[in-house]
Structures are given as structure tokens and as C-alpha cells.
Protein: Tol-pal system protein YbgF
Amino acid sequence: MPALIRFSHLLLLVLLGTVLTGQAQQTPDTTRLRVGQVPSMRTIAVDTVNVLPTAADTKGWLLLDKDIQLELDGAVQNLYNFKYDKAEKQFRSLRRRYPHHPMPYFLLGLSTWWKIMPTNFNSTQYDKLFFAYMDTANTYSERLIKADPRNYEGYFFLSAANGFDARLNAERHNWRKATVSSKRALNYLQKSREANGLSPEFLFGEALFNYYAVWIPDNYPLLKPVLLFFPKGNKQLGLSQLRTVAETGFYTGVEAKVFLMKLLHNDEHQTAAAMPIARGLALKYPDNGYFARFYALLSFDQADFAECERVSRDMIAKLNAGMPGYEASSGRYATYFMGYLMQFKYRDLPKAKDYYQRCIVFAESNGETDGGFYLFANANLARMADRDHDVVAARRYYAVVADKADHKSEQYKEAKNWLKKNS
Structure:
């Protein structure tokens, strides 16, 4: 993806004030792998941590209702453990009692989001339902604000729902719709932040702003002119705020943990700090394939191969059983790790080949063939075929490596040299 498009995508992510994980934050499966190593916006000041609202009547705010939180605790756990039916049954029960409140529609939309996310956004079967839930949440949020302009709960849901809408539209390259929704999210985030002192839920959006407002110009210096109207930020403050939300947030706590572990691993290069978060999520939500594959990746990165193997075998078993949330992406991770372990730990080359070939099939079935595990699986199979004097197979695998690898990489040079010698 060209840099400008990647920036636009990430910019839309930053405009959330919501609970998203973006393509720029999707974990690249090349991250420090041992394997195969072979339109203008208004300026918003977001430099404070907590702001206590004045003269705000919180009566009737479901977001702050402890009884509702107690009631929905099991539903939230089920949502993140991919027990969608159980979670949505409770969310629909909430909707029957509060049919004109945005919360039940937002939570149903969040559940739908987590059906899309494990596929790396390749599945579109839930798109219409997702947009319908978020549109409904917006409608009822606007009614809350019309009745009481200081209803910060309404602004929170408007910011969150519009942010989600922007994110999925960006994934689908519907840039006009994504831009409109992201601007709305910005506007409502500015208003909802006045309630930061009431609940960590309100602080989450500001945490993302503080981090990404610095991250973008640091990583895309050529785009600094585009950022003249972008809010000033503070990365360390953003990380600190994310930790606060991760520890104390009820509805946004898990989402904050997801962001925090990915930022620490991918951008801050603090994998050791990300590991306890990843482990905690994977153990608390053992049937969440997304958390499992991230934990397996960090275990691999930290050379905890026993744990990586355990989690990978579990992912493969759940994928074979057809459990929800275990998609081709999970299979790609798990089979690559198992192939590597069979090759380098157990020295079982037939099994290694089988796992690598399965990794390739998973990657191709999901369209995830731009490097990463797909590239490394082909490279390792090419080397094994060469050692076995299987020129036909080696040529097939090296041709893929030459096509997919960065032209400055050692893999590319290796593949081109072999193909030249064996032409």
C-alpha cells in the first residue's frame, strides 16, 4: 500500500475516540522474526488528562451505571471469548429494556466488529449489519444530545460509533464516507472529553490522540505539511492514559489492552513489556483466536518455543473444529510456527514441509501473500527442496520468493542467485 494511502488509513484510525485496531496496527508477521531471517481538519487541543464536567446531570447514563456493568460483565467476557450468541443474547435483553438508548446497539455493533476483525477484514458478510447497528447508535445518541446538550454519554457513543464507521469504510476503501465519519468522530471526541474525569471510558479516545499525534509525523516525515492542523500530542502521556484505561475501563478496558500491547511490540519495540498483556488476554479469553495468534507471535519472538507450540497446536485444533474466530489468518500463524519448530527444534523435515505447505495454502486462501509467513514458508521449502536435489520444487518456491521479497533483502538475493544458476 503506498505511503499516502497507508497514512490516510492510519489518520482515520487516529480520528476515532473509539475502540479500533488499524491496518497500521495489525501485527506484521515479519516483526523481528527469527524465522527465515533469513480534507483539512479543525485543530483540537487534547493536552489535558482529565477534565471534570460542570453542571452535568449523569442520571440515566447507562455507561456509568454499576448495576448495568454488573449485569453485562458476563456478556463482555463472552464477547471477547468469541461466544457471540451468548453475548448478543444479553445485549438484546438490554435493548428490550432500553430500546431508545445507543448502548445496546453499540454493543451489538462491537460484537459484529469482532466477527470481522479476526479475518484481517477480508470477510464482508457482516458489513451491512455492522453499519446498521452503528447508524442506530448514532440516531439514539443524537436524540440524547437534543434532549440534553450536556449529555456527554451521547457524545461518547457518537464519537465511538462514527469512529468505527470510519474505520470499516477505510478498510473497504470508501474514503469519502470514511472521511465524513472521521470528522464527526473528531468533533464529538472534543465534546465527550469534558467527561474524562467521570470514567476511564471517556479517556480512551484522548489516549489514542496523544500517542498518534506524535507517531504519525515521526513515521511519515514527508507528510508533515499535511499535519499542520493535527492536534499536538504526547506519546508517553498517551501510553500512560492507555494503561489507566486498560486497568480500570469496563467497556474499553480490553480494547485499550489490545492497543497497548500492539503499540509496545510494533512501535515501541518493547516486546517484553507487551508480553504480560498478551499472555493475560490469551489466558482470560482462551477461545479468542486473535489474542491467541498475537500471544503465539510474541512467544516466538521471545524464544519461548514451548509456549508458542502449545498455543499453535491449540489454534490448529480449534480451527479444524470450526470454532468461530479461528480463520485462515490464525492458521497461517500457527502452521508457520509449527513448521519452524519441526524444522529447527525437532528436525522432522517431512512434518516441517507439511506445515509450511499448509501455511502457504492458508495465506493464499486469505489473500495474505505479500511477504511475511508466506514468503518465509516458501523460502524454507525452497532450501529444503534444494538440499533434496528437487530442482523442480526448489525453482517453484524460489520463484515465489523472488516475486514477493524486498529487492534489497537477503531472501531476494538468494532466490535470484539460485534461479540464475539453475536456469
Observations:
- The radius of gyration is 23 Å.
